[in-house]
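Hi everyone,

Forwarding the result from last night's run.
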Amino acid sequence: MAPTRIAAVTGANKGIGLAIVRNLALSYPSSAFNNGPLLIYLTARNKSRGEAAVQSLQSDPQLLKAKALAKDGGLSTIEYHGLDISSEQSIDDFAAFLKKEHPDGIDMVINNAGIAMEGFNVNVVRQTLQANYHGTLHSTLTLLPLLRPHGRLVNLASMVGHLNSKYSPAIRDRFASSTSVSAITSLMDDFTTAVEKGAQAERGWPSAAYAVSKSGVIGMTRAVGREEAARWGGRGVLVNACCPGFVNTDMTRGRGPKSVDEGARTPVMLALGDLGGKTGEFWENERVVEW
């Protein structure tokens, strides 16, 4: 039977991304989105790892017990598709594929892909921002138009992107008052320039590429969500960012106390749950939090 709902999850071959795919399949049948079969695209940069992840889910104990997959009589089918979040061409190719395969549109996008590099220098900053900020932004702006009415777009951020004392008051105020994507992108460019000049501390920035990239993700998601509501409010598409929590993954080097399924809870809720129309917000533990 042809799918009636389409979802895409980026960076989904392991960790939180893989758990998001699993929990979408587990939670979809009891959600208000359920109107028939669900097709989930598990995307990853590496084809062999992505395909191995799809294969692992075919024998996943939770999915087998719930009979969640179509092969076991359930509603969900999981397929691999290549996607490198740091490459605009890769994102564009995926969007073209989705347009061709699903001309009526898709329903859910969860941008989970990202990187966390050790050390701090201008190369770390450039690579981190290219993947985590610019890549997520391009994916957001490219895939958002493909969403059908009442669709969902979720960007994974982090509480390390919170506007706390790591920024100077002036930088914090610029983030908080930014209402456009261009204003957030300008902040990312200013951070890169400051690091290039070795002047990040005196200009009010932390020496933390990952944290700044996630502040950017939260800020641009807020802007996109509010622009979408203002321009196309009748579509009912909800765009939100969230922190999955400190999860035990390769990215946290196994230090997080949360399981990957616990980390997937808020992203999956934002994709399938009743949000009361909230959009352009930052969420943690299934509730809106102050940025």
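The chain has a mean pLDDT of 95.

Cheers,
N.
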